[in-house]
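Researcher: I'd like a candidate sequence for this fold, 530 residues long. If you have to choose between options at a position, lean toward the conservative one.
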């Protein structure tokens, strides 16, 4: 019974405290800051999905992870401690996400309007019913947008946003004022492996089918309107509104028709908060009860000695400049900071739109060659989404750890910036006109330098043998993915790699002499003679 009691006290109880704290605490914070006080208006997908998904991992890694290591988890068939952490995070994240969607629908007020002109005379709410209104289907705004998603950008998404003016009556069509817009969206996903001609043909078919459905659509068949918030879809509708040729005003209110009872908007979300939490908590309880304690680890933990106390410091050390690893963390922190600013500016998280990236400094041949040459550098600090950022920062850490101490911080920084610019120039010359971003060109430049130094034996022979094959595999795999996957700028990758390799060859004599001098300065142990 002592083992069971210790498991409940040391491991399961902290899990419950973290879970309840995250679910209740974040939901209350969301309601107070974003719904009630409306301090800021962030992207709803970030507030409702991504923050609730990421947030639980912070207390889990800091507080719960050392306690999970108290269990005797053998690793013959995988990393079981990681599996426990993963299940704990999912068990907390899912009910937290469901709670935010419940809050979104449950806290929305239904306003009853006699006509659309009353929408400006009262505070904005989420839901509306309008007694009398008229939809002008003859004067609409249409916006088409495209983006990629999935692993290695395997999917190509086609979207059509249609914005129709909502008026009081047909007599108002003589005016150019419109107070709100009726939103309709069409979406289709195809393979991104198709060539441009096939994509164009699929889009034309998609557009014709959408037009046919729109022509037959009864726009008055609805129960109530849902006022769309700060989402990527809202941006699409705003772009459609700007393309309307008749109605010229600053209204950004977009109403989406809902054809179901208002009481059904919450569905079973409230029950599923508790259901999802209960299922996750039960699964995790069973996982905690099955293994035995690692008695040595348990004894150290209870005596105040934690074998994990340096893990967090080691993880944070990748982000903090230090001797021999000074520029790499600065570059990484700057990339992450810019990404976070873009996210909280409402541009997205998983992916950003090309127009937004262009506004933030992306490389685009018609614009860059028209005098905005600074984009050759600024684009290297932008990323197309979360996975793009994570992949590049992982590559930067790996090469930076080994290469920066050998080059020194000044040469490392100059090479990073130089190869980044050369990669951008290569993209301009060889790549078809497209919005290009990412640190990968500069990172490939560093790998080019690293490869040249491995081949010229600047590093010790054992080190070169150990890392040469893995480096070639890394470079080859990423280049192959670039050739196989549309939307990947391989011109920048190859340009950065080749320029870095050449720079490495140029620096080889100096670095070789430097390595020899360092070896001569190493203390030699006195020999002993019999």
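Model: Candidate sequence:
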């Amino acid at each position: 019974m002592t083992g069971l009691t210790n498991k409940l006290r040391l491991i399961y109880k902290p899990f419950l405290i973290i879970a309840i704290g995250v679910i209740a605490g974040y939901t209350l914070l969301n309601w107070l800051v974003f719904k009630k006080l409306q301090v800021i208006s962030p992207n709803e997908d970030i507030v409702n999905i991504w923050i609730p998904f990421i947030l639980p991992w912070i207390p889990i890694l800091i507080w719960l992870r050392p306690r999970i290591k108290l269990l005797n988890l053998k690793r013959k068939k995988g990393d079981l401690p990681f599996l426990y952490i993963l299940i704990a995070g999912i068990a907390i994240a899912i009910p937290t996400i469901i709670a935010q969607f419940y809050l979104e629908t449950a806290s929305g007020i239904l306003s009853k309007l006699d006509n659309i002109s009353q929408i400006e005379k009262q505070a904005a709410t989420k839901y509306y019913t309008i007694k009398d209104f008229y939809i002008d289907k003859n004067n609409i705004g249409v916006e088409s947008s495209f983006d990629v998603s999935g692993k290695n950008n395997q999917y190509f998404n086609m979207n059509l946003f249609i914005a129709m003016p909502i008026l009081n009556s047909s007599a108002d069509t003589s005016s150019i004022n419109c107070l709100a817009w009726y939103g309709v969206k069409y979406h289709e996903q195809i393979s991104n492996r198709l060539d441009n001609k096939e994509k164009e043909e699929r889009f034309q078919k998609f557009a014709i089918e959408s037009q046919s459905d729109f022509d037959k659509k009864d726009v008055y068949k609805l129960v109530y309107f849902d006022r769309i918030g700060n989402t990527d879809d809202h941006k699409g509708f705003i772009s459609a509104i700007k393309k309307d040729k008749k109605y010229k005003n600053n209204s950004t209110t977009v109403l989406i028709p809902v054809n179901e009872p208002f009481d059904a908007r919450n569905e079973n979300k409230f029950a599923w908060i508790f259901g999802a939490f209960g299922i996750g908590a039960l699964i995790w309880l069973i996982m905690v009860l099955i293994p035995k304690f690692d008695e040595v680890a348990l004894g150290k933990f209870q005596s105040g000695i934690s074998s994990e106390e340096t893990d967090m410091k080691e993880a944070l050390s990748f982000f903090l400049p230090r001797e021999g690893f000074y520029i790499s963390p600065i570059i990484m922190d700057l990339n992450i900071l810019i990404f976070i600013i873009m996210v909280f500016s409402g541009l997205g998280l998983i992916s950003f739109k090309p127009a937004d990236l262009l506004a933030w400094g992306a490389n685009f041949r018609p614009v860059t060659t028209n005098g905005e040459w600074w984009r050759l550098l600024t684009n290297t600090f932008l990323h197309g989404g979360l996975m793009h950022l994570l992949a590049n920062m992982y590559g930067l850490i790996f090469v930076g750890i080994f290469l920066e101490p050998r080059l020194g911080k000044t040469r490392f920084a100059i090479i990073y910036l130089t190869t980044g610019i050369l990669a951008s120039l290569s993209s301009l010359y060889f790549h078809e006109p497209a919005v290009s971003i990412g640190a990968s060109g500069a990172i490939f430049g560093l790998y080019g330098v690293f490869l040249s130094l491995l081949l010229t034996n600047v590093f010790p022979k054992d080190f070169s043998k150990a890392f040469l094959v893995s480096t070639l595999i890394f470079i080859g795999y990423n280049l192959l993915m670039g050739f196989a996957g549309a939307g990947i700028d391989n011109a920048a990758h190859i340009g950065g790699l080749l320029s870095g390799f050449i720079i490495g060859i140029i620096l080889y004599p100096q670095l070789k002499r430097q390595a020899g001098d360092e070896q001569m300065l190493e203390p030699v142990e006195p020999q002993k003679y019999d």
